[in-house]
Amino acid sequence: MDITNKKDLDNAKDIVKREIICLQKLEELLVNTPLSKVLDLMQNTKGRVIFTGMGKSGIVAQKIVASLASTGTPAFFVHPAEASHGDLGMISKEDIVLAISNSGESKELVDIVNYCKRFGITMVGITKNPQSSLGKCVDYILQLPNVPEADTLGLAPTCSTTATLVLGDVLTVCLMNRNKFTETDFGIRHPGGKLGSILQSVAEIMHKGDEMPILPEDSTFEKIIITMSDKRLGCVGFVDKNGKLSGIFTDGDLRRKISPDLFNKTGKDLMHPKPQQIAPDMLCSAAIRLMNEKKITSLFIVKDYRPVGIVHIHDLLKKGVS
């Protein structure tokens, strides 16, 4: 393993310290900014939340937009240069526009500012200078720390972009909390990859209908064995005369209860009453956690006490849930 030399390590630590100081300044500034008012506008807008910015500010704006959109706040990015060539039409009177410019003097934002002023569209400026051209034109300001950048020249966007990114996270997470955004909501917006699998509900992957190993309580041992072998889920569930799930018999029970008189028993004689059961909207991640806790391999999914599906641990593992 290569060890970083002292000069590089000292330099790296100094950069991190400068960025930390910048974020501490941002925390102090939040006390006197109209954060709640901006959140109200973003949460209650009848239109969309639109971010704009040039250069590095624009790149950070796109990340903020992606975070907002994936957590329940309709948002998109408008590039200032493209706005001047037709994309201003993407902005409606019911939208709210958040313009990012560390200095507040980005000339590329002029057309967007003028357009918003002309049509009475609410604007929020994210800048370190409230007295800048941008600061004087917007309705509200979320101020960034006026601190040097972290590079030796004090020019490369480093501290300023970090502060902007964190401010975007503040807006995103505050709105998530306000809107009571849940894991299920998150999963709906992230169907791809492992994260999407973890955030799926069991209803999306469960075996249902004829795939379920379900029998009446009075079923014979022969019928139980045939069903267990046919469905290949390692168990059979039993329902009472009202169709409600009343018990379960597993292949482990079969090995433990093997005896000469087993063939004379019915499901009611053999089953474990009150089997572990879950609701259809339980997340796959929660289901596999429950299986691990209870040391079981299958869970019946019920609605109004009636089985509507079953999920096996192998179904979850195939989806990448662990």
User: Mind describing the biggest β-sheet?
Assistant: 5 strands, parallel
What is the string of SSEs from the N terminus onward?
HHEHEHEHEHEHHHEHEEHHEEHEEH
| Distance from first to last alpha carbon | 30 Å
Helix and strand content put the structural class at alpha/beta
Instruction: Give the fraction of residues assigned to helices.
Output: 40-55%
Number of domains: 2
Brief digest:
The protein has two domains: 176 residues, Rossmann fold; 117 residues, CBS-domain (Roll), CATH 3.10.580. It has 14 helices and twelve strands. Strands 2-1-3-4-5 form a five-stranded parallel β-sheet, with helices on both faces. A four-stranded mixed β-sheet has the order 6-7-8-9. It has a three-stranded mixed β-sheet with strand order 10-11-12.
What does this structure look like?
- The chain folds into two domains: 6-181, Rossmann fold; 202-318, Roll (CBS-domain), CATH 3.10.580.10.
- The model has no long low-confidence stretch (mean pLDDT 90).
- It is elongated.
- The chain has 322 residues and is an alpha/beta fold.
- The strands form three sheets. The protein has a five-stranded parallel beta sheet, with helices on both faces. Strands 6-7-8-9 form a four-stranded mixed beta sheet.
- It has 14 helices and twelve strands.
